[in-house]
């Protein structure tokens, strides 16, 4: 960081970033933070990563999504915070909603017909429900016939599942069956 900028900040960079993220009504870009601080994006990113390390032992976390960052409470505090605020337990998602979210999270951006093709059933209703809950968002239109809407997950999705970024999703693995397992699962048609 340049000496002229460093002396103009009232506190260290991590403290300034923490304060700015605390008062931000939602997620912000590194560029927005850099402009406010008079710093280059790389300097801001370094400061954010240092802040992330400092927050690891506290009740706050940085949440990254689609090139944006915001300050959130630690996911492991959710039950305590819900009880403190008198909130009802988080509404459970149906199996269809979880299945649809998983498809979109791993394949985003994806169209509704793309989700339908993977699930094998119409996903209209469940996707409308997920949109209304703020777990999905429209992110554009696909090139092709009819230009279908593309969907992706939101920062609320990350908060709901206690993730800091989409990169924290477990690796996607297709189940493979050995020949013996496949034999045992065959229908008796012979």
From TrEMBL:
PANTHER family given in the database record: SEGREGATION AND CONDENSATION PROTEIN B
BP GO annotations: cell division; chromosome separation
Protein name (Swiss-Prot/TrEMBL): Transcriptional regulator
SUPFAM superfamilies listed in its UniProt record: Winged helix' DNA-binding domain (SSF46785)
Swiss-Prot/TrEMBL keywords: Cell cycle, Cell division, Chromosome partition, Cytoplasm
Organism: Levilinea saccharolytica
């Amino acid at each position: 960081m340049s000496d002229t900028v460093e002396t103009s900040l009232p506190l260290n960079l991590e403290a300034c970033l923490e304060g700015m993220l605390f008062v931000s009504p939602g997620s912000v870009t590194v560029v927005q933070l850099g402009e406010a601080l008079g710093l280059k994006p790389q300097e801001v990113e370094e400061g954010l990563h240092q802040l992330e390390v400092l927050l690891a032992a506290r009740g706050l976390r940085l949440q990254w999504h689609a090139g944006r960052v915001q300050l959130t409470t630690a996911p492991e505090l959710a039950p305590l915070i819900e009880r403190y605020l008198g909130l009802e337990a988080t509404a459970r998602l149906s199996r269809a909603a979880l299945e649809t979210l998983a498809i979109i999270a791993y394949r985003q951006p994806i169209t509704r017909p793309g989700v339908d093709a993977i699930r094998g059933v119409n996903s209209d209703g469940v996707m409308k429900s997920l949109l209304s809950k703020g777990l999905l968002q429209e992110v554009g239109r696909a090139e092709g016939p009819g230009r279908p809407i593309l969907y992706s997950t939101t920062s609320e999705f990350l908060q709901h599942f206690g993730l800091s970024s989409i990169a924290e999703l477990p690796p996607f693995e297709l189940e493979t069956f050995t020949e013996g397992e496949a034999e045992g699962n065959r229908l008796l048609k012979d």
